[in-house]
Specification:
The structure is a single chain. The protein is α/β, with parallel strands linked by helices and 326 residues long. The chain has two domains: 109 residues, Four Helix Bundle (Hemerythrin (Met), subunit A); 202 residues, 3-Layer(aba) Sandwich (Rossmann fold), CATH 3.40.50. The chain has eleven helices and 16 strands. The longest helix is centred in the middle third of the chain and has 24 residues. It is globular and about 60 Å long. The model has no long low-confidence stretch (mean pLDDT 97). The protein binds 5-S-methyl-1-O-phosphono-5-thio-D-ribulose. The site of 5-S-methyl-1-O-phosphono-5-thio-D-ribulose has 18 residues, from helix 2 and strand 9.
């Protein structure tokens, strides 16, 4: 897999530099965060997003606090209050909390470098599941933009595409459009054959036999194998079940939360209504009409064909297969 020339998260020596994912696909600009508060806002406002990338950014936020000589515990507390669903955030902060102050910067670099290796390994384990000639449906963006490099679901696609003919259908992913804006952007840059469809088209293409399988990332996968991911993932999994298609989740071990028994325990972030009522400046909903904006859903383990991790592929019963991998 080739390493992208752009990076979602970088340490500059005195600041955290984030590729501004709000401005993609039309503008490739960076935001420089020089304080812990700026890093926290970068996560909340989705300058950076995607579970592993959020964890990496938070790790650098803590290292930045140490370098600035501000209270590291307060920084951890502030960063933990940014987004509630992706467990990688809390995993990374816990890792930093246990690290001696003088080693925090090295540890943040390690979180980033390890993530790159993890994504590569996920790609290698998962690629065998994708047949030559496949059209793979993916939802949201579980790509290089969401990780240290390569992605999770998109690492599997990238690795498979090295030796096989692979076509990707990217769900648009309402309301934040991570599929059409981000997945299409990075796959096009890599020369992967990608076509954008709106979320409500997936069933039609499955019915017509145009989709081979679906592969998604995850923000938190729990002990029984329930997979929490971007809102709309559950719908994709139900459609796969109905059409007899494999539904795969690509999940680094840092996204496994074995302290939770089922997906019902996962805190689901509700994001601002404006993401639903508007696209850019264009209003789509009458003023005053309430909207809901849960950012994630939970796909029950029974709908998940396999969970691809950097340590191997887990299959049902997940309670034992996931525990075996951790
Ligand atoms: O709200 P987002 O864009 O942070 O949601 C991201 C997702 O749902 C991804 O699929 C998930 O974090 C996996 S990223 C490898």
């Amino acid at each position: 897999m080739t390493t992208p020339s752009w990076h979602p998260v970088q340490w500059t020596g005195d600041a955290v530099r984030l590729l501004d994912q709000r401005r993609l696909p039309t503008e490739e600009v960076y935001v420089t965060c020089r304080t812990v508060e700026e890093v926290a806002l970068g996560i909340t406002d989705m300058v950076v997003r995607g579970a592993p990338a959020i964890g990496i950014t938070a790790a650098y936020g803590v290292a930045l606090a140490a370098q600035l000589g501000v209270d590291v515990d307060a920084a951890i507390q502030r960063l933990a209050a940014t987004r509630p669903t992706a467990v990688n955030l809390f995993w990374a902060l816990e890792r930093m909390r246990r690290t001696p102050r003088e080693s925090l910067m090295d540890e943040a670099h390690r979180v980033l470098e390890e993530d790159k290796a993890i994504c590569r390994a996920i790609g290698e384990h998962g690629a065998a599941l994708i047949p030559d000639g496949a059209t793979v449906l993916t939802h949201c963006n579980a790509g290089a933009l969401a990780t240290g490099a390569y992605g999770t679901a998109l690492a599997v696609i990238r690795e498979a595409a090295r030796t096989k003919r692979i076509r990707v259908f990217a769900d648009e992913t309402r309301p934040y459009l991570q599929g059409s804006r981000l997945t299409a952007w990075e796959l096009q840059k890599d020369g992967v054959d990608v076509t954008v469809i709106t979320d409500n088209m997936a069933g039609w293409f499955m019915q017509k036999g145009e989709i081979t399988c679906a592969i998604v990332g995850s923000d938190r996968t729990v002990r029984n194998g329930d997979v929490c991911n971007k809102i709309g993932t559950y719908t994709v999994a139900v459609l796969c079940k109905h059409h007899g298609l494999p539904f795969y989740a690509a999940v680094p071990v840092s996204t496994l939360d074995l302290t939770m028994r089922t997906g019902a325990e996962i805190p689901i972030e509700e994001r601002p209504p404006r993401e639903v009522t508007h696209v850019g400046d264009r209003q789509l909903v009458p003023t005053g009409v309430p909207v809901r904006n849960p950012s994630f859903d939970v796909t029950p383990a029974a709908l998940v064909t396999a969970i691809i991790t950097e340590r191997g592929v887990a299959r049902t019963p997940y309670e034992s297969s996931l525990a075996g991998l951790v």
